[in-house]
Structure formats: C-alpha cells, structure tokens
Amino acid sequence: MAADEPLLHGSTHHQNVVGECCLGTEESRLEVNEESLLPTPPHLRTFTSLDMATLWWGVVTSVSTFYVAGALVEQGMAWWQGLLTVVLANVFQALFAILIGHAGAKYGIAFPIQCRASLGIRGAHFATCLRGIVACGWFGIDTWIGGQVLFAFIDALCSGQLQDYSSISWLGITLPELGCFFLFWLVQLAFVWHGVHGIRSLEKYASPVLLLLCGGLLLWAYLKAGGFGDMLSASSQFGKDGTKYGQFWTVWVAGLTANVGSYATLSLNISDFTRYARSQTDQILGQVGLPLFVGAFSFVGLAVSSATEKIFGYIISNPTDLIDQIGGAIPTLISLFGVTLALLTTNVANIVAPANALINMSPTIMTFRKGALLTAVVGFVIQPWRLYQSGDAFLNTWLLGAIWLQRSTNDVAALLQALQQLEESSSSVAVWMQW
User: Fold this and answer.
1) How many other C-beta atoms lie within 10 A of the C-beta of residue 236?
2) How many Å apart are CA 118 and CA 215, to the nearest integer?
3) Cα 168–chain centre separation
4) What is the dihedral of CA 259, 261, 262, 263, to 10 degrees?
5) What percent of the chain has pLDDT over 90?
6) Angle at which helices 329-347 and 195-225 pack, to 10 degrees?
7) In DSSP terms, which residues pair with 174 in a beta bridge?
8) Confidence tier at 422 by pLDDT (50, 70, 90)
9) What is the Cα–Cα distance from 138 to 350, expressed in whole angstroms?
10) Rounded to an integer, what distance in angstroms lies between the CA atom of residue 113 and that of residue 19?
C-alpha cells in the first residue's frame, strides 16, 4: 500500500466513524466506496472561516434577499423592525446550520452519510432524494433567471436585435433565450466540475466583487435620490395611531417563520461543505456571518428600493427590473454583470445536494461529476421557464410542491427515527434500516 493511500481513503479512525454513522454493519461500510462519500482526509480540509463566510455571502446575494425586509415594511413594520426580524430569523438559521454542520467538521462526512446515523442507509435515500429534487428544481429556475440576465446583457450589446426572434413552438422560448440558458448552464458546470473546491474558489473571488457592487449601488441610490426615501423614515403602522394597530405579533410571527425557512435547504445539507472545514472553530465562525450578511444585503435592498420611489416615482423591488430603468450603456452592463454573478454564486451550491444524493444511491456507478451533470440535465428537462413565466404555475406547482417535499423529508425522518427505536424488538425493522 502506498504511503498516501490511508489519507486518500480516509484514516482508520475516520472509516470507523463512517461505520458508526451507517449503523455499524459490514454491509453498511461496503456502501461507502465512492471517494465523494468517504470521510474527507486531513489534507483536503482546507476551508477557513473566511471560506465558509464567503459561501454564505455568495448565497444570500440573491433577488429574494434584496427585498425581504422591504416586504415586511410593506406589511406595516418600520424599516428597523423588518430588518431586525430578518436578522433574528437568520440567527436561528445559523444556529441550526452550526449544529447540523458539527458532524461534517468533526468526522469529515457528507450529508447522506450523516443521515445514515439516524435513518439507516435506505432511510437516508428518502431524505437525500427529497432534498435533491428540491435542489434540482431551484437549479433549473435560477439557471433560467441567469440566462435571462445574460439575454438582456447580450441584447444590450446588439442594440435589441435579439428581440426579433420568434418563439420555438414546442419549447415556448426563442432560440437566443435557449442559447443564453445553456450558456449560463455551462458556466455553472465549469465551476462545479471541480467539486466543492471549485465552488469555494468561485465564492471566494466573487464575494469582494459583489461587495463592491452592492456598495456602489447603495451610493448611487443615495446620491440620485438625495437620501434613502420615505420608506426608511416611515413609522410603524402597528402603533396606536396606525392603520394596523394590534396586529404586530401576527405579522411578526408570520414574517419570522417565512425568513427562518429562507435558507433551510442549504442549512440541511451544510455538512457537504463543513466536512472540508479545518476545524469546528472555522465552521462556526464562518456560519455566524449568515445573519450579518442577510441583514446587510437586506438593508441595501431596502434602502435602494426606498430611493427608487423618489428617483422614478414608484418603488422598484426587483433588481432585474431596476436595471431596465437605470439607463446608460456602462451602468446597465455593470448592473447586469453584478446580477449574473450574484445568481451564479447562489445557484452553484444547489447542485451539491442532488449530486451527493445520487452517489449515495449508487456509489459504485455515480461520481460527483456524473451526479452534477445529471442534476443539470434535470434542471433543463423540467423546462423551468414554464414554471417561472406563469405566476400560478410557479406558486401552485413549484413552490407548494417544494414545500410539500421539504415537509415530507421531515415526516419521513421522524417516522424512520421512531422505527429505529423499535430496532432491538423487531428484527425485520433492523434489517430494513440497515440494508
């Protein structure tokens, strides 16, 4: 045996840990024979707290986070109440992610292997596949949005000539739109092709660029509007003289709950990333940044959206709609680049969960690259533009379906944990859980 083989395949201690997580049977150990599911060897545990922090910063710089606090202000809160609600929700989310990520940082195990500890090998398939289905859907939808931004970018360079193409009847989109979709699709695969370390490199170098662009957008809005507008000066509508007096706690609980679930999916499989952390300290410090980043980016969105009311006469909460109103070739191109980069850093993390789920189901056949490619193909096959272009389809078909799948994951986990408690008294349950 070569000197470096124990590190490549995990130390004896790490392999024992994997065995424990798979309920300790010899058959379970044989399931873990693909390198992506083996414990991360020490020489590959290189993620610092900064790497973990930039992962979250890249994820939270999204369209939804841009106006998440503004939505609460529209419900009647003062701007600081809405912002504090968002931050508090993500404090809970960060605590959850730290607890989930503990096993990954300690033992170097991925999310599917972590699931085996409580759900068994077959039970872990349910949890990881349901998580993977949701991620495939979001990958396709975000890829479509990213393709639309590229379409606008290229169309601006071509003086609007791309608008002249007619839709392909059986697809429902034009040829340039399809081309931009696959261009963004390929760019994401280029980073994911190098595994989690490729994603880390993207997040690490894109984060400072996104930070500068956010600062530039905030400065532009302030100077253009001569302030941040009426939204930041408006008082709460829940006071004694307000139109929604006595309704604060109802709105607050609903807003807090909705924001807690914003990044629940990534928090659920965060071990896929913390397994590469140098230490527990690095993964904890890095994830503490989640509520800080969400709060900061939400404030940017809140302030800019408020300023647009003075600049354009009405509130623009969607950054892609704001690009159309900014005007000027250079500002438009810079803005499109920023939105594209933000979508890219948000979406590449979606591909890790389904890729590892596929490996977990068939570790002798699947690899991370095969899993990532299959995930990307599924993201195209579902034709995400049909879901996104129709509000009813997006809400009733996808969002409700995604919520149902995530809820089903929790229900299956609870059921299998209850079955596991019966393991000693029922040999059939023991065999089913450990197969």
Assistant:
1) 17
2) 45
3) 31
4) 130
5) 16
6) 140
7) 167
8) low
9) 7
10) 9
Q: How far is CA 391 from CA 149, 159, 165, 262, in A?
A: 19, 29, 24, 19
What SS3 state is found at 57?
helix
Using DSSP's 3-state secondary structure scheme, residue 166 falls into: coil
Those residues whose C-beta lies under 8 Å from the C-beta of residue 56, and which sit 6 or more positions away, are 286, 287, 289, 290, 293
Stretch among 135-144, 182-191, 382-391 having the lowest mean pLDDT: 382-391
Per-residue model confidence (pLDDT) at position 150: 84
Question: Residue 47: beta bridge partners?
Answer: 277
Query: What Rg, from alpha-carbon coordinates, does the chain have?
Result: 23
Nearest-10 Cα torsion for 159, 163, 165, 167: 160
Q: How far apart are CA 196 and CA 271, in angstroms?
A: 12
Query: What domains can be seen in the chain, in order of their start residue?
Result: 11-434 (1.10.4160.10)
Most confidently modeled range among 101-115, 125-139, 279-293: 279-293
Residue 408 neighbours by CB under 8 Å, 6+ apart: 130
Give the model confidence (pLDDT) of 51-93 as tens digits: 999 999 988 888 778 877 777 877 788 888 888 988 998 999 8
Between CA 233 and CA 244, with CA 238 as vertex, the angle to 5 degrees is 115
Selection from 229, 233, 212, 428 nearest residue 338 by Cα: 212
Q: Where are the alpha helices (DSSP H) in 158-194?
A: 175-192
The pLDDT assigned to 2 comes to 39
